[in-house]
Amino acid sequence: MIIDHPLLGPRDAQEFVYLGDADLINRPDWQAEDAADAFHDYLYLRDNPAGVHRELWYHEQGDRSWLVVTRDTLTHEISKVELARDVARAQGRGR
Amino acid sequence: MGRSCVYKLKAMTALGGTKPRVDVFAGVKISENPDRALVSVSARQGHETVCRERARAFLGVDLPAPARAASSEGFGVLWIGPDAWMVEADHTRHELLASEIKTAVADAGSVVEQTDGWCRFEVEGSKVCDLFERLCNVDVQAMLGDAVVRTSIHHVGCYLWCREAGAAFTVMGPRSSAASLHHALIESAGVVSLD
Asked: Which residue positions does the secretion signal occupy (chain A) (predicted)?
């Protein structure tokens, strides 16, 4: 599998480490009133689609950037690759 | 009363020798290079432009684009990640390179001394591409001068810096794996020299 890195171009998947669902970047506020419930959902509730899935990959043997990869879990076709920090900033986050 | 003690400390290279190791094969020469100081610089969030300007003023060259390196008189700079670079310079003239660069970029960048974290080999010769094609999955034939990639050589994460297309490369790996990296280089060099 080849991942088309937004900065470095196509790179072999063996350079990357898979973390999981891209929603993991949306960590709940630990000081909120409902923090315990929010962290329960954050930790345990995950969509597991047969189809298009957004997931976090780490370019460990490369530039050490985190990527959000949109991949079809049925075909392994990768339709989009973004820097995770760009995704977070597009959501209005500071980092 | 304290007893005085005179230490006789001798500097060692990454491979443990008192002199840098040089291995010569038909078509490939591998030279250990212990003479370069290394420092990483990361632009702080929101200060990227200021960090670039201050670094350029000090280094005499623009911080390079992704997967590229740049050189000025006295300094080399490698892109190592988003808003992160490695600066290298002659160790004798810039032993305190980290503090020099920290003074230059001030609060616009984070600076980390890297010199003794890495070992470095200069690899050159007509068969240098044959060598690295066997060692890593980088398209070394396509690398132009001043292209830089991080890659894995025998499971050791290394920077591969093309100095002259098809002819000369610098490879930097973790110093604690210097002997493993050197072993990989000379084993493969022995094979390609027979072709």
From this structure: none
Q: Where exactly are the structural domains of chain A?
A: 2-90
Among candidates B31, B34, B39, B37, which has minimal Cα distance to B16? B34
ipTM for the assembly: 0.82
How long is chain B?
A: 195
Q: Does A6 reach chain B within 8 Å, measured CB to CB?
A: no
Return d(Cα B181, Cα B34) in angstroms, integer: 15
pTM of structure: 0.89
Instruction: Judge contact between A10 and A2, C-beta under 8 A.
Output: yes
Check if A64 contacts B (Cβ < 8 Å): yes
CB contact under 8 A, B137 and A14: yes
Are B66 and A95 an interchain contact pair (Cβ–Cβ within 8 Å)?
no
**What is the tens place of the pLDDT at every residue in B16-42?**
999 999 999 999 999 999 999 999 999
CATH code for the domain defined by A2-90: 3.30.2270.10
